[in-house]
């Protein structure tokens, strides 16, 4: 049997470029609508263009991009998902569409981030462009969204999450790409108060659960006991799943979302807080959908297999690897 040549095997850089191109394409609202319609099959008839308010130029341009990316193909007069398109639709779009920033908003958001980091911008969401809010409404299916707070860095969002969990009253749903000691510590305390805690975590750009966890264990003296208790508390449900962006819902009302940069979907771009019960219910449903394909959590097994070496390892805060 012949072997695949090196020339026919995509390199890591080529794969990363393809992922970026797909994220970028699906961050466009027209492309995303066409991609969603292709799940059931869509043609290029005049009635389709009129029904969905597409011009011919916009429709064919976006459709060609999806075809060129290998997400959609034409069969018997209809455009449908390819195998790759079906996988992306099922894992990243279905239930709640991928939340990304359009390229047209990147410069505006980058400027807001810079101002926020320099202290020239308040933490409210009032300064956000309306086009961005319109995109978020289209992605989530929730109208009249008003962001309560803007977070320029992961540390700011993480600190906010920890504070909100400290005062929560009933239940937390959190799907995250980051294993973070502050969140784990406050979630454990909430569970001890009788709150229900539902957690899903994910690998992030080569940082596996083990690497992220080990970074926390080496950086925080209390981390070993906290994560051990986290896996044993009856009020906490843990799982591992593919999480393309982090989000959480507290007490069926408060929402925190990580917004992804389509040009660098692996790194934190910015975060938003909302106080919106409709959005909260959408994300809870999305969380439950992701949970259906979740794997058994591995944190307890990692701690068990590495406990002897961890107890001998000096704590070093400069080795933390979970922050972006």
From the N-terminal CA to the C-terminal CA, the straight-line distance is 44 Å
Structural class: alpha+beta
Low-confidence stretches: 1-8, 314-324
How much of the residues is beta strand, in percent? 15-25%
Radius of gyration: 21 Å
How many individual helices?
13
Strand order of the largest sheet: 3-9-8-7-4-5-6-10
Helix-strand topology string:
HHHHEEHHHEHEHEHHEEEEHEH
Q: What is the average per-residue confidence, as pLDDT, rounded to a whole number?
A: 80
Largest sheet: 8 strands, mixed
Tell how many strands the DSSP assignment holds: 10
Task: State the helical fraction.
Answer: 40-55%
Shape: globular
Give a verbal description of the structure.
By secondary structure, the chain is α+β, with helices and mostly antiparallel strands. 48% of the residues lie in helices and 17% in strands. It contains 13 helices and ten strands. The chain has helices at 12-26, 29-37, 46-51, 56-68, 83-93, 103-117, 130-140, 154-166, 181-192, 209-219, 223-232, 277-291, 299-312; strands at residues 72-75, 78-81, 147-151, 171-176, 196-201, 236-240, 247-250, 254-261, 264-275, 295-296. The strands form two sheets. An eight-stranded mixed β-sheet has the order 3-9-8-7-4-5-6-10, with helices on both faces. A two-stranded antiparallel ribbon has the order 1-2. The longest helix is centred in the N-terminal third of the chain and has 15 residues, at 12-26. The model is unreliable at 1-8 and 314-324 (pLDDT under 50).
């Amino acid at each position: 049997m012949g072997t695949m040549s090196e020339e026919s095997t995509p390199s890591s850089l080529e794969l990363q470029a393809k992922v970026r191109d797909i994220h970028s394409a699906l961050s466009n609202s027209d492309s995303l609508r066409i991609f969603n319609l292709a799940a059931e099959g869509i043609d290029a008839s005049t009635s389709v263009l009129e029904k969905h308010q597409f011009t011919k130029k916009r429709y064919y341009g976006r459709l060609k991009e999806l075809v060129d990316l290998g997400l959609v193909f034409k069969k018997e007069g209809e455009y449908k998902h390819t195998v790759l398109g079906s996988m992306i639709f099922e894992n990243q779009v279905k239930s709640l569409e991928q939340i990304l920033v359009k390229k047209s908003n990147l410069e505006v958001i980058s400027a807001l981030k810079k101002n926020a980091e320099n202290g020239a911008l308040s933490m409210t969401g009032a300064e956000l462009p309306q086009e961005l809010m319109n995109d978020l409404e289209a992605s989530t299916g929730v109208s009249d969204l008003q962001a309560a707070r803007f977070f320029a860095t992961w540390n700011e969002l993480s600190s906010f999450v920890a504070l909100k969990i400290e005062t929560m009253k009933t239940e937390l749903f959190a799907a995250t790409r980051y294993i973070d000691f502050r969140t784990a510590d406050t979630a454990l305390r909430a569970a001890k108060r009788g709150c229900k805690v539902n957690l899903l975590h994910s690998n992030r750009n080569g940082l596996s659960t083990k690497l992220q966890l080990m970074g926390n264990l080496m950086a925080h003296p209390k981390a070993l006991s906290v994560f051990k208790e986290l896996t044993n508390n009856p009020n906490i449900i843990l799982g591992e799943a593919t999480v393309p962006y982090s989000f959480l819902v507290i007490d069926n009302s408060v929402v925190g979302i990580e917004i992804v940069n389509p040009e660098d979907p692996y790194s934190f771009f910015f975060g938003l807080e909302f106080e919106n019960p409709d959005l909260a219910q959408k994300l809870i449903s999305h969380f439950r959908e992701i949970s259906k394909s979740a794997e058994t959590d591995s944190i307890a097994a990692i701690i068990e297999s590495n406990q002897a070496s961890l107890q001998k390892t000096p704590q070093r805060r400069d080795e933390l690897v979970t922050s972006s």
